[in-house]
Task: structure prediction
Amino acid sequence: MTGNDAVFLPNKLRLLMELRRNGIADDKVLGAIERVPREKFVPATFLDQAYENVALPIGNGQTISQPYVVARMTEALELGDRHKVLEIGTGSGYQTAVLARLCRRVFSIERHRALLRQAELRLAELRLHNVTVRYGDGTKGWPEQAPFDRIIVTAAAAELPAQLTESLAMGGILVAPIGEERREQRLVRIRRDESGFTTEELGIVRFVPLVAGLPRDGAGAAG
Ligand code: SAH
Result:
């Protein structure tokens, strides 16, 4: 640990303890969270809150997810180092970075170009070369790369797009928040096997909405 990193260390350790207290038990997940510098993913104005257990604004009306939710969803994915993962909603790239530490390859889609560009720079700076990002509408999945061992959706839809469940490999797991905007949403885990899909409820969460299509100006301009 060098330079500025040390400034964040006490808060980071406090956050890790809080996650453990709140039931995150997977040491690999906690280890990945420990190794991803969240301060690099939040806007400068919120730097002092980088290790608070809260979601923070990242521009374009979007948020970097709450660390507990990132930990919970990552744990729920039961990641292995051979897994190929699809993420819908790159946002800041923070969840992407945590995933990248725990699996073989991450494919991540974002519909705001400005957010995607910043996320790409951060991931490159952290030398997470096993991530491929794409600008586009994640509700359509990434058919050229399907099937995926794991799929994570970090924005809430009233209904899960069929394209995503269809992209899940046999034995695969999908984790997503389901529900209407500005309401409580249910975090679900869906497993696929030969006999079909099984859904489990993991609790209540709150996410920005999964929006089909691309921003109207096509550029995903900041605002
Ligand atoms: N995991 C991210 C969370 C970002 S918030 C982080 O921790 O930073 C959810 C993101 O999903 C937003 O950036 C939003 O623009 C994106 N999103 C919403 N609908 C989408 C869609 N149809 N395709 C791709 N990304 C989408």
Notes: Residues 3-205 form a domain with the Rossmann fold fold (CATH 3.40.50.150). The mean pLDDT is 94. The CA atoms of residues 147 and 166 lie 8 Å apart. The radius of gyration is 16 Å.
